[in-house]
């Protein structure tokens, strides 16, 4: 920052000294976007050296000088500028150029060179917002054309919010993961079309599975519409670039899996995102549409929620074209037990009887009888006969036991 200021000051003073007509020319004063935040003081560039180049320079010098190439310009005035200005590659805005041939003074000649050098720059190194990119939709707050009750006015901007972070007290996002929060001026970038919205589904463990505690397992997740295998350094480039898509419109990115312990499968407690048992980026590209991550050592016994975080290359969650869409991520719930068996495994057959309201008492009695040691086949025969008669149908539902009774009877709780 100080360096930049110093250079700017050097440039200003040298420009002034190089000027044949040092009176500041208001037409050539440009408001700059050199620094995203605090130093508005250094943001005014007066192209006072361009006394002879009034029209053209208005669009131009700003980019070059802002790009920090002031060192080159320091060469100074007149013909001396010719060499130094070669470095002004940042001058994307120089479409105006100097065509005022009436200005023949040495200073004008120097500035012409400046502009010529500058024109070799491109939009991606320019520090000015190109007028073709102004997002005019951001100028309205959304309240004019009908609004839902409670809808609030949007913040608006005439300049794409390029200096938005100056309105906050947050540090600028700088590619590190700033735990106390930050303000990011990087654009959201390329938004995936509705035909290319990512989604995913865990294949293993799948929803409601039970797996063995403290034992290696591999998470597998099928993924659609994400061009996987693209991830940048999360320590230096986190949220540090826009989302981008490939030539077919798919977001180029990667996914993550996070596993959090929860109270139970029926838990209604809101989870705490600062706490999780396992987190892993699926860094490799999907194989046959499936991403994999080994969980070395497995998990302790418990109940878990497992979620995906489908992301762009710079780790931001994927962005898609419309607000109303199915989930772009998956979440499943599974149980981890010491033996890898569901705790109520022996009673699983009871599920089949849930609908047989009228049979509850009978079933309880059958179980009791089984527990006091009556023979299994005899009980089944007794149970079926009256049931079928009472229901009065030969359908599957006529059986009180479905597939469950034999299991119950042979494996009493
Ligand atoms: C061209 O430069 C001359 C000399 O500085 C100046 O008097 C004149 O107004 C300029 N013309 C335009 C169109 O800027
Ligand atoms: C100078 O350049 C501007 C912008 O391109 C143009 O509109 C104008 O006609 C030019 N004038 C001369 C004298 O070439
Ligand atoms: C990034 O910003 C944070 C917060 O201002 C700061 O603590 C950290 O040193 C910065 N890191 C780099 C590499 O600029
Ligand atoms: C579990 O995974 C770890 C890490 O990959 C590996 O070193 C270990 O051999 C695995 N254990 C078994 C029993 O496969």
Rg on CA atoms, Å: 35 Å
The CATH homologous superfamily name of the largest domain equals Immunoglobulins
> Which structural category fits the helices and strands?
alpha+beta
Shape: elongated
**Average residue-wise pLDDT:** 71
The helix count comes to 8
Here the CATH topology of the largest domain equals: Immunoglobulin-like
Order of helices and strands: HEEHHHHEEEEEEEEEEHHH
Number of strands: 12
Helix content: 10-25%
The biggest beta sheet, please?
Answer: 7 strands, mixed
Distance between the termini: 74 Å
Fold topology:
Layout lengths: L1 H17 L10 E3 L12 E3 L7 H13 L3 H4 L7 H4 L21 H13 L80 E6 L5 E3 L4 E8 L1 E2 L23 E12 L15 E5 L7 E6 L6 E7 L2 E2 L18 E7 L22 H12 L4 H16 L13 H6 L3
Parallel strand pairs: 4-12, 6-7
Antiparallel strand pairs: 1-2, 3-5, 5-9, 7-8, 7-10, 7-11, 10-12
InterPro entries: Appressorial_penetr-assoc
Keywords: Signal
Any descriptors?
alpha+beta; Immunoglobulin-like; 3 domains; 12 strands; 21% helix; 15% strand; disordered N terminus; disordered C terminus; binds 2-acetamido-2-deoxy-beta-D-glucopyranose; Appressorial_penetr-assoc; signal
Brief write-up:
Residues 91-126, 383-413 are annotated as: Disordered. By secondary structure, this protein is α+β, with helices and mostly antiparallel strands. Helices cover 21% and strands 15% of the residues.
């Amino acid at each position: 920052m100080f360096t930049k200021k110093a250079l700017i000051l050097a440039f200003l003073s040298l420009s002034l000294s190089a000027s044949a007509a040092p009176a500041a020319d208001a037409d050539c004063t440009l408001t700059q976007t050199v620094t995203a935040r605090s130093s508005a003081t250094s943001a005014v560039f007066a192209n006072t050296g361009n006394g002879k180049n009034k029209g053209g320079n208005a669009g131009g010098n700003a980019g070059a000088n802002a790009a920090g190439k002031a060192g080159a310009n320091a060469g100074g005035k007149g013909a001396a500028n010719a060499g130094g200005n070669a470095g002004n590659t940042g001058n994307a805005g120089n479409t105006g150029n100097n065509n005022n041939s009436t200005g023949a003074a040495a200073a004008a000649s120097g500035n012409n060179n400046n502009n010529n050098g500058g024109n070799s720059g491109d939009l991606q190194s320019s520090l000015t917002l190109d007028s073709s990119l102004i997002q005019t939709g951001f100028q309205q707050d959304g309240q004019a054309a009908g609004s839902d009750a409670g809808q609030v006015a949007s913040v608006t901007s005439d300049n794409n919010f390029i200096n938005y972070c100056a309105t906050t007290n947050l540090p600028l996002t700088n590619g590190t993961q700033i735990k106390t929060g930050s303000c990011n001026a990087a654009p959201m970038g390329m938004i995936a079309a509705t035909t290319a919205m990512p989604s995913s589904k865990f294949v293993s463990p799948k929803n409601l599975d039970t797996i063995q505690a403290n034992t290696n397992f591999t998470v597998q997740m099928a993924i659609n519409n994400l061009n996987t295998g693209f991830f940048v350094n999360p320590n230096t480039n986190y949220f540090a670039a826009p989302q981008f898509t490939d030539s077919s419109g798919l977001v180029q990115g990667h996914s993550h899996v996070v596993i959090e312990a929860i109270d139970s499968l029926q838990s209604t407690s809101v989870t705490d995102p600062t706490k999780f048992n396992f987190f892993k980026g699926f860094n490799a590209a999907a194989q046959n549409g499936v991403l994999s991550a080994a969980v070395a050592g497995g998990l302790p016994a418990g109940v878990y929620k497992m979620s995906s975080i489908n992301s762009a290359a710079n780790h931001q969650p994927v962005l898609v074209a419309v607000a109303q869409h199915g989930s772009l991520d998956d979440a499943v719930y599974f149980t981890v037990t010491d033996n890898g068996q569901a705790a109520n495994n022996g009673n699983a057959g009871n599920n089949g009887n849930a609908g047989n309201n009228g049979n509850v008492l009978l079933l309880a009695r059958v179980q009791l009888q089984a527990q006091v040691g009556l023979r299994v086949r005899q009980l089944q025969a007794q149970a079926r006969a009256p049931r079928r008669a009472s229901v009065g149908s030969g359908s599957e539902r006529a059986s009180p036991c479905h597939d469950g009774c034999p299991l119950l009877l042979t494996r009493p709780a």
